[in-house]
Amino acid sequence: MQCAQKLISQVNCVVELSQQMRTEDLRYLELLNRLRSGQSTIEDYQLLCTRIIGNPKLQASLRQKPWNEAPILIFRNTLRTHINNRAVLNKAMEMGLRPMVCVAQDYFQGKIIDDLRLRKTILELYDNKAEHLPGYLPLVPGMPVLLTENMATELGLSNGTRGIFHQLVYEESSADIQFQDKNFSLMLRSFLRKMLQ
C-alpha cells in the first residue's frame, strides 16, 4: 500500500481526453464518447461486433484486401513480432521483392558492444526485454506501417497514424565492423529461417 501511495504522489498532472481528434468515422466517434461516459447502447455493441474478425457472419480472409492491410492490435509482444514478420514475408512475395533486415545497434555506457556473443544474445532478446524494440526489424517497400509513438504531431505523425514504408535512408557507419564477421551473417540467416517458420 505504501508503494502505491508513493507512486500516486508522483503524479502531478492529469490530462482528461475530452475530444477524439483522429477518428473520422462519426458513428464510431459517437460510440467512443458514450463509452467514455458509461452510456453505451445496444447499437454500440452491435457496431463493435461488426469490427471483430471472428464475427461468424463475416466471410473474409486475412489474406484478402482490405483485411490483409488492417492493423492487428496484439498485447503479446512475441505474437505481434511473429505476425509482423509473416506480414513482411507475404508483402515481399506479393511485390516480388526481398525483405531488408535492419539490425539494432546496441550500446553500453555510450560505447558500441563489440563482444559478438553478447551482441547475439541481446539481438535475440524478446521485445519485452528490449524496450519493445526487436533486434531484427524486417522491412519491404510498399508495406503498411503503424506508428506507435508521437514523432511529429504538428505534421500528423502521431501514435496510431498509418502509412506506407517506401525507403530506408541511413548513414553507413564505418565504426561497426561486426557486420563483416561471418558469424554475424549466420545469425542473420538464422533469424530469417525463424521468420519462415
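(ticket continues) Second input and output from the same batch:
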Amino acid sequence: MNLNYFVLLCFALVRGGSNARQTRNGEKVDIRRSIRPPAILRAGESVAPQPGWSHCVHNIRAGAFWGTISSRTLRNLRETQFQCTWMITAEASRKVVVAVQRLTYGSSASARCRTQFLEIIDSGKTQGKYCVRRHPTGDYVARGSVVRIDIQGESELARLIRDRRNPFVFIYKSVPRTIVSGFRSTTSRISGINTYTETPPTISSNTPGDRNKKNKNKKYGALTLSGIIAVIVCSALVVLIIIILLIK
C-alpha cells in the first residue's frame, strides 16, 4: 500500500472541499455554480414597456420569509382576457428572489408562451416568458431590490381561475445583496431548506473580553457538505493506514 498515494488523495479531497467554501471577506455568499446570469439591456435597447393595464397592478413588499402569490386571490376577475402585474420590492440593501411553483396554462405547442405566459422583468429587461411547456430552470435572484412579474392569458386562463384550478403559484422573498443574481438550477419550496445564507454576525468591539478581536472567519465561510465529507473520508483513510502499519 502506497502511503504517498493516500496523502495525495486526501489533499485532493480537502482541496476540493475548500474550493467549495463561500468566500467574500468572511460573508457567506452564494456559490457560483449552476447559475445562469440575468439578461441585461444592450446599448440602444429600449426598456420593457410599462403594463398596458391598470385594473390589476399590485405593489408588494418582500421580506425575509417566503410570501405566496396565486390565482386563488383573484377569483373576482371575470374578464375573458387576463392581465396582471406584481411589482415586488425589497429593502434597498437586499435583492428579490422569486420561485415559480406552478404553471398549468399556455399548453398550445404553436403558441410557445407568446399569448399566455408568466414573464419576469428585471431592471427593464425581460428574463423570459414561461408557461406549462416552458418552466424557469429554478429560482431567479434579481439584480437589485425590485422585480416585476407579468401574467397574461386568454379565455383558457380566465376559465381556470373562475373554476378555482389555481393555474399559477409563485413565491418571493428578499435575500442579502451578496447572493449572486441569476437563475438557479433548482426551485425552492416554502417548506424546504433555506439555500440563501445570511451574513454572519461580527464581533462587537464593545463586548467585554472581545475588544479588538478579529473575525476568525475573515477569509473563509463554513465548509459545504462536500468539504465535510472530504474531511471525514480523509480522516478515515489516515486511521486505516495507521492500523495497517501497526499490524505489519
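Agent notes: Confidence is low (pLDDT under 50) at residues 18-28, 199-221. The two ends are 11 Å apart (CA to CA). Closing as not reproducible unless the customer responds.
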